[in-house]
Each structure stands twice: as C-alpha cells, then as structure tokens.
Known about the structure:
The complex is a heterodimer. By secondary structure, chain A is α+β, with helices and mostly antiparallel strands. Chain A has 2 domains: 17-325, Bira Bifunctional Protein, Domain 2 (BirA Bifunctional Protein, domain 2), CATH 3.30.930; 336-397. Helix content of chain A is 36%, strand content 22%. Chain A contains 13 helices and 18 strands. Chain A has helices spanning 17-36, 83-91, 135-151, 166-175, 181-188, 192-198, 208-216, 225-233, 237-256, 300-303, 318-325, 345-357, 370-380; strands at residues 40-41, 47-49, 54-55, 58-59, 67-69, 75-78, 101-110, 122-131, 159-164, 221-222, 262-265, 278-283, 292-296, 311-317, 336-340, 362-364, 384-389, 392-397. In chain A, the strands form 4 sheets. Chain A has a 9-stranded mixed sheet with strand order 1-7-8-14-13-12-9-11-10, with helices on both faces. In chain A, strands 16-15-17-18 form a 4-stranded mixed sheet, sandwiched between helices. In chain A, β5 (67-69) and β6 (75-78) form a beta hairpin. In chain A, α3 (135-151) packs across α9 and α4 (166-175) packs antiparallel against α9. The longest helix of chain A is centred in the N-terminal third of the chain and has 20 residues, at 17-36. Chain A is elongated and about 100 Å long. Chain B is 33% helix and 30% strand. Chain B contains 9 helices and 11 strands. Chain B has helices at residues 15-26, 32-35, 57-66, 76-81, 123-132, 148-151, 166-170, 190-195, 197-210, and strands at residues 7-12, 42-45, 50-55, 71-75, 87-91, 97-104, 116-120, 137-141, 157-162, 173-182, 184-188. In chain B, α5 (123-132) links the parallel β7 (116-120) and β8 (137-141). The longest helix of chain B has 14 residues, at 197-210. The relative contact order of chain B is 0.22. The chains are: A alpha+beta, B alpha/beta. The interface between A and B is medium-sized, with 26 and 25 residues.
Amino acid sequence: MKSCDLITPEGTRDLLFEECSAIKSAEDKLRGLFMSYGYSEVITPALEFYDVFNNKTRSFRQESMYKLTDEKGRLMVLRPDSTLPIARIAATRLKDSVLPLKLFYCQNIYRSNPKMAGRDDEIRQSGIEIIGGEKRRSDLEALALAARVLDSFNSKTARLELGNNSFYKRLIRILGIEDDENVRTLIKNKNTPELKKALSVYEGTELKGAADMLLCLPTLFGSGEVLDKAKELFSYDELLGDLAEFRQTYEQLCRIASRDRITVDLGLVSKADYYTGIIFRGYIEEYGQAVISGGRYDTLIDSFGGKAAAAVGFAANINAIADAVHFTEEITKPEVLIFADEDSLIEGILHCAELTDKGLTAEYYDGQTLSGAKDYAAVRGIKRIDAFIGTNIEHIDV
Amino acid sequence: MADNSKIRIALTKGRLEKNTVALFERAGFDVSELKSKGRRLILDIPGSGIDVVLAKAADVITYVEHGVCDMGVVGKDTIEEHQGSYFEVCDLGFGACRFALAGKKGEDFYAGVGIKTVATKYPNVTRRFFEGKGMDVDIVKIEGSVELAPLLGLSHGIVDIVETGTTLKENGLEVYEDVLPISARIIVNPVSMKLKKAAIERLVEKAEKHKGEID
C-alpha cells in the first residue's frame, strides 16, 4: 500500500511559528477575558462515546463525525462540539454544584466535512457556558461577552446577530408540522421559493395566516425596524408575547454594545436542534462563515439525566480570529546563543540556566564548532554569542 | 450598516450566463463589458458596484460557500447534486427543465424484485430519489451521454436532465417518472447576506421584477 507518511489528512494542517503564535495569542486573549469574568476552565476528552452526540433530543449528523471503536467494540467519536460534553459534565460530576456554573474551554472540535471543499476538519474553539442562571440575566451576560469577543476581531464590519427560534417553534406547532426537517432546512437556507411550495397545502385553510407568517420568517432580518415589521405581521398572542420579550433583549443589548453593530434575524434556526430560546451569531466580512455561534439550551442537561437547568453559551472560532486579526506579535528570537566546546559542555548548560533565570532568552547551540554557531546565529537573527572555549567565556557580537 | 461595499456575483458559464446578462440588461445595467468579455473571467458592470465572475456550475457554489463571491446564479440541478450551506433566495424561472427517470420504451422499470441499476451523471440526486422510495439501487456514474447505458444493457434506467425529450425519443427511450423540476436560482453567502443586505436585496428585487421577461 502507498504510504502516507509525508502528508497530513485532508482538513488538517501543521501550524508553524507565526501561525501557531497567532492562534495562541487569540486563545490567550479570550482565555484572559473569560477568566476576568470569573469563568472556570474545563478540558473534555477529544474522544467521547458516540451516544453523547446521538440521542433523540441532541443529534449530530453521523456522517459529520469521525468515528472509531474501543476495545469492547463500542462506538466512539472525536468530539464534534464542546457544549454536549459540558452538559454531560453538568449532569454528572457537577450535578451537586452551587449554581450558576460558569465554565469556559479552549479546545479542538472535529468535523468530517465533504472533501476537496477547502474546509477545516479540525477547528479550535473557545467558548463559555452559563448553566443554571436566571434566564434574562444569563442571556444578557452571554451576549455581552460575545460582543466583547467580537471586538477582539478588530473588524469594522463585525456584527452580532440576535435571533430566537421560539417564533419558528411556535408556528410549527400551530401548523401541526411534526417532522419539520424539510421546512427547517428551507428556513435555514432562506429558500423562500421552495418554502412557498411546501406551505401551499395550507392555502384556503384557517391556518393560511400562520403559514404566511412562517413564510415571512426568513425575510425578517436586518436592523431593529424588522421588529416593527414583525409586529404588523404576527397575529397570535403567544408570538406577540415572544416578540415583546425579544425586543426587550434587543434593546438591552443595544445599550451594552453599539446599536449599529447589532442586527436581528427572526428566521435564525439552527442545525443543532437543541436550542430552546435565543440564538446568536457573530459575523465579519473577512470570513465566509459565522465566527461566533451560540444560544440557549434549556433541555440539554435534562437529556443527560441531570436536574433540569437553564443554560446558555457560545463558541468562537479561534482559527478565524487568528486569520482575521493577523497578530503582529514577533516570534521570540533568543537574545543569546551559547556555544560550548568539548571541555565545557556542563558549563554551557549551566550558563544557559543562569541566563534564563535572569529573564533572558538563551539558546544552547547543539553543534561542535564556533564557526557553525556563528552561521546559525546569523540565520536565526541572534545578536550575541556566549562562547565557552577551554575555561574561558567569550562574548561575541554577531 | 456598511452597505456601500462591492458585490461580487458568480455566473454559471453558458446558457445561464446569457440569460442572466439579458436579465441585467433588462434591469438597466450597463452590460457592454459582459457582452464583449473576450477571455476575461472577472468583469465589471460600470456604475453598479457589481463585479461579475464567470465559472463552471459547481464552482459557483464553491466560491459562494467560501464567501469569495457574495452571490451566484446556478441551476437547481447543481444545487441538488452539490448541497452546501448557502441561502437560496430566488427562483429565476429560466433554464427550466427537470430531472427524470427514463429507460427503454415500453419497459416497466419497477417490475420484478431484483436490484435495479441506474446510470447517471448525478449520483447524489439519484441516491436521494431512491432513498425517498425506500428502494435499493445500484448507481453507476457516467460522464458523457447517459442514454447509452440502458441501450448497451449496462443499466435498467437513467436519471438525467430532460428538456424536450428529443434525445430520449431518438434513441428509443422514454421518461418513466419525473424526479425534480429544475430552474436557475440565485444563491447567497450567509455572511454576505447579513453584512451587505441592502445591496443584495436591491439586486434580488430587480431580478424578481424582470425575470419574467427572459426566455
């Protein structure tokens, strides 16, 4: 068989030097932000049982997960998401904790994307989860933090978009649609022409009004005026109640972050079926997909057999932040290169420890000749060599 | 909102391109550059803030999905075969035809209990169609004239795009069943839709208004 020992699997890549440091800078920034807000960090295993991600109320498409088996033949996956593992923890090890739980993570997720489409299969995400808080307060806190994360992209076009799938869910219930996968996909894709066809069965029935409202959902996005438009269109009391609540959250958010950076989309529905309230996304022009994605998931912890607890959270795509921001941070070059000849190997190593203890960056040269050390220092851009020759130490400026 | 930014739209080369250019002309855009394009692949519609990119159908989807083009005009056939994440906002109506299941004239495709073999250029569309019927079929991917497969005895039927049905007729084949109607669609990158809403909506509105005038 042909060996693949020189390449990485499609959708993955080695991150070298600048790329690596850009990712780490982005991650450190978010990590510092979340810690300063009092969040505690968790790391969940990259390997999880398939069952965590496949259950009636929380299913990931099985084609999109990397799978393997353990020694008992049980199916495992590389985690495609961090929220479900954290809900699992909240329902088990943290079930007796004082609420609210405020957790954050920085870790990779894995998705098996269609090949040759230029998609990353390994994505680094950092995000938060607020579990067991009072709904309005937690929603606002999550949104405020998402707005701050979006600031870190330094993008003039950055927008935070607020949605809520309760409009969609109520209309589906009113229309009595049980298997809503097709309709949900059409709404998600803002496919009004096809949605119109799918809803034509309600033509001439007393549900025509509700069908028309559903048909309008995908078009109800943009700035705050959309909410006025929705108020004219919606007629059911429960929908209008949801809308009033939504407007309140929107207005509050506009006081936290600037109004011209907040948009709404009442037709925002998610592929992940577990959201039960607000859904939000962050966009920047430089990146073709949402860079922040989150929402409320009140039934998830319950579905792991835990106490029912309201929860909200989001994840930010660290690769996207690193790409968009072009962190200019210099890759640290050592200040001193240490050369030791055959008689002073120990002295050289000890000298290295001494310098680094003083706060300098010092690299121990792993070659035999001083001329080699000089060439190496020139290539690496190191300005000073401390050379141990015999028992003498010599400082050489390069 | 920052809505004065340029819009880049990818057109499927060939007939859909001609139709779309005609649509742009009806909508009052200056299409002189589009009509005398030579071999250039990126063209400007002067004074409109719109760039036009010419690409093969499947590539239109790829460019829009990645957000390097904000919008695209592509046939429903390509959308169904290469599904992805983008908004499908407008049915332009032109380029109308259909996917159909066809085979030798007078034969009953569904007769018997044996597994059927179906030849097609569109394996994903074919698989979904038969999955919807709960039917196992063997799918053979063919690159060129699919009509040959049943004639040569390779397959029991074909799933292919049918416009007038002339090719089928001349080769002694007939349509057994329609699979899906096809027409040209406007697709939009989700982030562009949100960040360039006004400009994109203006263009879609113009398209909706004039699409009936294109044949």
